[in-house]
Amino acid sequence: MLRSVVFRIQRPAFRKVTSQLNRTSAFPLAVRYYNPMQRGPSPPRLPKEEQEEFEKLQREANVSRAFQEYDADNEELDEELLEAGPSINEEALKAQGLHPDFHYSNIKPDFEGDTNPVTGEVGGPKQDPLRHGDYAFNCRVTDF
Question: Where is this region: Disordered (predicted)?
């Protein structure tokens, strides 16, 4: 027959000390009640008529003429780019083992040679990387 073995778990000796520390804390905890239904900080509510007028103006602004003009300008630009044809020689990219969507080949250098005439830097980038406020080439931002 198998005998069952019972182990007696003893309480640690420091239990009383920790419980006393919890009861008599030198730093009482501040309790903050949070109501999820309560609104957070926001501007004061408008009267109903003014709120309706504000929402109507917001809807009109979202479909304003400025957006329509911007979209029309972009459509014209897209048509011009499509008519111009591809700016990247796909056969040359394939010969180098690069994918046709690789766009770094259309970076035009700001200077010729190895030395930047403006900063005197030798072996640096051919384009000013901080021209637009971040270190980017063809809309791809890189870290320092």
Answer: 110-129
